[in-house]
Amino acid sequence: MKQLFLLAALSLSAVTAQADTFDPTTNTLTMDSVIVGDQKYFNVVVRIDQFTVLGVGSSVPIGGVNEICGTENFTIDKFNAIQSGMSIDQINQTIGCKFDPGSAVRTGGLVNYHWMNATGGNVQFISVFFDESSLKVTAAMGNQFKSSAGF
Predict the structure, then answer these.
(1) What are the structural domains, with CATH classification, of the chain?
(2) Is 8 helix (H, G, I), strand (E, B) or coil?
């Protein structure tokens, strides 16, 4: 009887796990449902690298993106997660802070945005090229579409 119960439990957990998805470009895990205490949440999206809840019940962020970038926003993992085709909002979510709107430099159909932190004499930044018409990450010269410094 115990073996039958274990087999049933394992098959049920396999069915539940199929609804969960992980997006490595944004480090987000989307789960069908999560129970916390006596509360059940549906369509939960969490960012794995920061354990930040990105949305509950929809894809609309409910937090996790700071207005100002800090040292914690600049890591090689976050830089590597930025991929061609991403939007500005996706990069804001990936890095965890908003780009500097005054940093836009437009050249020949491309626009270059920067995410920056300058504290204690140390400057950290991530610079990304976007197609000016779609505002999606695109290669500027050859395969280059992003650069960084300070971390």
Answers:
(1) 2-56 (no CATH), 71-149 (3.30.1450)
(2) helix
Beta pairing partners, 110: 107, 131
Distance in angstroms (rounded) separating the CA atoms of residues 144 and 136: 14
Please indicate whether residue 80 or residue 60 has the higher confidence score (pLDDT): 80
Q: pLDDT (tens digit, 9 = 90+) per residue, 13-43?
A: 444 445 688 888 888 889 888 888 888 888 8
Highest-confidence segment of 1-5, 88-92, 106-110: 88-92
- How far apart CA 103 and CA 127 sit, in angstroms, is 9
Return the amino acid letter for 7: L
Token pair in block for residue 77: 């993992």
Angstrom distance (rounded) from CA 126 to CA 79:
7
Pairing of strands 52-56, 122-131: unpaired
pTM of the model: 0.57
3-state secondary structure of 51: coil
Structure tokens at 24: 């490595």
Question: How far is 45 from 53, CA to CA, in rounded Å?
Answer: 6
Span 50-61, average pLDDT: 49
